[in-house]
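Hey L., structure's done. Input below.
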Amino acid sequence: MLVYLRLLKESFGFAMNALRNNKLRTLLSLLGVTIGIFSIIAVLAAVDSLDRKITKDLSSLDKNTIYLMKFSFGPSDIPQWKREQFPNVKYDEYTYMKGAMTNTDQMGYQIFTKSESIKYESNTVSSINIVPVSHEFIDIQGLEFEKGRFYNESEANSGSMVIVLGNEIAKSLFEDAEPIGKNVRLYGKRFTVIGVLKKEGAGLFGDSNDTSAFIPVNVIRQLYGDNNDNLTNVIIFKPEKGVDMDAYKGEISQKLRNFRGLKAGEMDNFFINVFSGFTDFIDGIIGQMNLVGWVISGFSLLVGGFGIANIMFVSVKERTNLIGIQKSLGAKNRFILFQFLFEAIILSVIGGLIGLLMVWLIAFVLTKALDFEFVLGMGNILLGTGLAAIIGLVSGILPAIAASKLDPVEAIRTGM
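Output:
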């Protein structure tokens, strides 16, 4: 064991000597490994950071959550012209389904509408994501509050002029003042602020609850009615745990078809979107991003491997005389092989560590500059280091074998 530790120490010394004596040649040869490790780990770190953000943003939603609406989350075999004829789900369908469905933990109603401006005294915040929802939404999405509360069933059903603000909106409107109980103007009407949500940070698609405002869904119904084509309505189902999802979707379809009077043989004029389908779609995209990163980076690693091999062949040629002397003094072939093999691995790992350092610096800068946390995890650091070591091992094996098989007399004579 001590022999190999000494061998490793000597190999490290030779690698450092190569860097000192042939800086430009060695750094250029290591560039391929550096770029390859940088490319792979940068992609993996970015994807991991995105995956972590998605998981955080969607953690409050059950993957079995179902969205019943006239649009589909994904591709559909139904022609577009046919889909455009589908009716919006209605509030009376929501109330009917709420009483008719079994095995349901929560059921809510939401309307997707355009952005608006909210005003308080002389302060105005524009492009606010208005979220008209029924009172069950707090239990479906698991909203967390900095202060105040969500509206209750009575306030929701009566269409009370109450509003829950996202964190950024509240700070922009009220600054350091107390927002609870204050009146803001929206849709030309006065709304009383009853709650402010905790800060979340940037959302998956840019928006988040920080820039959203929640109002009772019946406020929008009173303003625009139930047949406005500019609004998109959705019934949200949160089934009980352990429910057979196929049977549950079948019950939703059967109940709504009966309510709408669809005959046997007629196609559904609605879509039952399971949230897990959306998350699977996102996971597929993340997997493709990882694959593309590996393919592109593989070419850089291939070039880096050739660079390491070139360094080692040159190193063997420069140290032929020394190899001959070592062998004449009793050094075994295995000792010479490991010496050059360790040197190749050390050089490759140095290139990999430079690549990892570049990823860490870029992640640090982007995290500070953007409202998004880029994370270089320990798993990716170990992966990058391991890949670099493997590249060094594969690239150095032929030069190391060539060095170990040199005849000591010929090696000394050639090196003189």
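The longest strand covers residues 123-133. The longest helix spans residues 275-318.

-- N.
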